[in-house]
Amino acid sequence: MEAAAKQLLSETEESGSLPLQQALDRACLDFSIALLGHSLKGDLFESTVVGFLAVLGVDAAKQTFHEPYGYTRYLSGLVKVAQMLVVERAVQMADKEEMAHSVDTLDAIWERFLPHRIQTLFGWIARLRTYGKKI
After folding, report:
1. How far apart are CA 127 and CA 120, in angstroms?
2. In 2-107, beta strands by DSSP E
3. For the segment 18-73, what is each residue's pLDDT rounded down to a tens digit?
4. Considering its fold, how many domains does the chain have in total?
5. Which residue of 81, 87, 102, 114 could cross-link 94, Cys pair, CB 3.0 to 4.6 Å?
């Protein structure tokens, strides 16, 4: 799959057509934001991001889980990356004039994908990070 993608991108570069690369970048950005924006109803571990965070929690050297106070840095990193993804999407939408102003876009995306409600992934991560900092 990776080889096919590289071939497709090299053909696109040779033809001088950059929109395919931009479309792929936007699709990856939208997919990343969508991963963060789904609700956590049902089985918590059906979430791709929760599974990813579970794997990050394993200390391979000690063959145990990381201590909670050491794990919060992964959660904080994910929160910052999520915020940067949302800002990037807001800037893109403002540049293409899909919304009047980037701040309006940022607010709309934030309310949709990154609220601190209980049933959202982002809210769960924020609560877990807060718990890890308290202990």
Report:
1. 11
2. 58-59, 64-65
3. 588 888 888 899 898 888 877 777 888 788 888 899 898 898 899 998 887 788 88
4. 1
5. 102
CA distance 37 to 40: 9
| C-alpha span between 107 and 93 (Å, rounded) | 12
State pLDDT tens for residues 93-120: 777 776 666 677 667 766 766 566 667 7
d(CA 30, CA 28): 5
* Residue-level pLDDT at 28: 92
By C-alpha distance, which of 118, 125, 110 is closest to 49?
A: 125
Q: Which residues contact 113 (CB under 8 A, 6 or more apart)?
A: 33, 34, 36, 37, 86, 122
CA–CA distance, 29 with 33 (Å, rounded to integer): 6
CA neighbours closer than 13 Å in the CB half-sphere of residue 43: 5
Do 81 and 134 touch, CB atoms closer than 8 A? no
Domain that holds residue 21: 1-134
Rounded-to-integer distance, Cα 115 and Cα 100, Å: 22
